[in-house]
Write a structure and sequence with these properties.
299 residues, alpha/beta, TIM Barrel
Length: 299
C-alpha cells in the first residue's frame, strides 16, 4: 500500500491545450508542473475539474498523468483523478494510474444522470477495489456532478473498500465539510476544495487544500499552510485574505480560461481551454490583473 496521506496544498493541475483546445501542450504542462513543485506544493492532482478531466479522452488522461509523472520522478506525490461518467472508464483509468506509478487516486461521483445512493456505493467500491494497493479519495462536488456524496455513502464504501482514505469536498459549505471530518473513520482525511473556506477548514480538522487558484498563485496557499502548521494563526488568516484576493480576481474557479491567464501572468504558458468552455477576453484578463497588482502579487 502506498504511504501517501492527504496533507497540504494540492493543485488540481490545469491541462494546457493548443489553439482551439485540440491537443495537450505537453511542454507547457510539464513546465507548469515543474514550477508548481518548485513553489513547494505538497502533491499534484492532474485531470480533475480544473484540469478539464471530463473534457479529455481516456487516452489523453492516461497520457497527461504519464507526462506529469515524468517531471516529478517520485519527488512530489501525484493523485490521479480517475472519476468518469461510467464505472468501466473509471476502473480503466484507475488501473492505468496504478500501473503508471501514481501515489493515489481520486474518484468523483458519476455525473449527468441521477444515481441512487446504493448505485453510487457500488460505483465507488468497484473503482477502489480495482486498485487496492493505492489510497483512494472520494470527491464531492454536487454542483457539477449532480450526485451528492454523503457521510453514509462514505461509511458504506469504506466498509467494503478500506483503501478509501478520505474525501475532497468542494460543496462550499463548512457544515458539509465538517460532516465528512466527523465520520469517525480511523486514518481518514478530508481536503477542502473550496478556497474561501481553507483557513476555517483547517480549524475544524481538514488536512489539505485542493485549490484551483494554486495553479497560478501556489505560494499564497503554501504559506497559509506553513503559518497554520507553525501556530501563526494571524499570519495564516492574512494569507487567507490574500487567497480571497486571488480567487475573486480569477472568478473563484468559475473560469478555467482565466486561471490559465493567471498562470501566464506568472510567466508560464497556460494554453487554451477545450470547447465548449469559453475563452476570456483581453478586457477580462486586464480586470483580473489590477487587483492582483494592487495586492502585491504581480510586479
Amino acid at each position: 500500500m502506498s504511504s501517501f496521506r492527504l496533507r497540504g496544498v494540492i493543485p488540481p493541475v490545469v491541462t494546457p491545450l493548443t489553439e482551439g483546445g485540440i491537443h495537450v501542450d505537453v511542454d507547457a504542462l510539464q513546465a507548469h508542473v515543474a514550477w508548481l513543485c518548485s513553489q513547494g506544493v505538497h502533491a499534484l492532482m492532474p485531470c480533475g475539474t480544473t484540469g478539464e478531466g471530463p473534457l479529455l479522452t481516456t487516452q489523453e488522461r492516461i497520457d497527461v498523468l504519464r507526462w506529469v509523472l515524468e517531471v516529478v520522478r517520485g519527488r512530489t506525490p501525484v493523485i490521479a483523478h480517475v472519476g468518469a461518467i461510467t464505472t468501466a472508464e473509471s476502473v480503466a483509468l484507475a488501473e492505468a494510474a496504478a500501473t503508471g506509478g501514481a501515489d493515489a487516486v481520486s474518484i468523483v461521483a458519476p455525473y449527468y444522470f441521477r444515481i441512487p445512493d446504493e448505485a453510487l456505493v457500488q460505483h465507488f467500491v468497484a473503482v477502489s477495489q480495482a486498485v487496492v494497493d493505492l489510497p483512494a479519495y472520494l470527491y464531492n462536488i454536487p454542483q457539477c456532478a449532480g450526485n451528492v456524496l454523503t457521510p453514509s455513502i462514505v461509511e458504506q464504501v469504506v466498509a467494503q473498500a478500506p483503501n478509501v482514505r478520505g474525501v475532497k469536498d468542494s460543496a462550499g459549505d463548512l457544515n458539509i465539510l465538517r460532516q465528512f471530518i466527523d465520520v469517525g473513520i480511523p486514518d481518514f482525511h478530508v481536503a477542502c476544495g473550496a478556497d474561501p473556506l481553507v483557513f476555517e477548514a483547517l480549524g475544524i480538522g481538514a488536512t489539505a487544500s485542493i485549490s484551483g487558484n494554486a495553479n497560478a498563485f501556489p505560494e499564497v496557499v503554501v504559506e497559509l499552510f506553513r503559518r497554520y502548521w507553525a501556530g501563526d494563526l494571524a499570519g495564516a488568516k492574512r494569507q487567507q485574505d490574500l487567497l480571497d484576493v486571488v480567487r475573486n480576481a480569477l472568478r473563484n474557479g468559475q473560469s478555467i480560461s482565466l486561471i490559465k491567464r493567471g498562470i501566464e501572468m506568472r510567466g508560464l504558458r497556460g494554453g487554451c481551454v477545450r470547447p465548449p468552455l469559453p475563452e476570456v477576453s483581453a478586457a477580462e484578463v486586464e480586470a483580473a490583473r489590477r487587483p492582483l497588482v494592487d495586492a502585491g502579487l504581480l510586479g
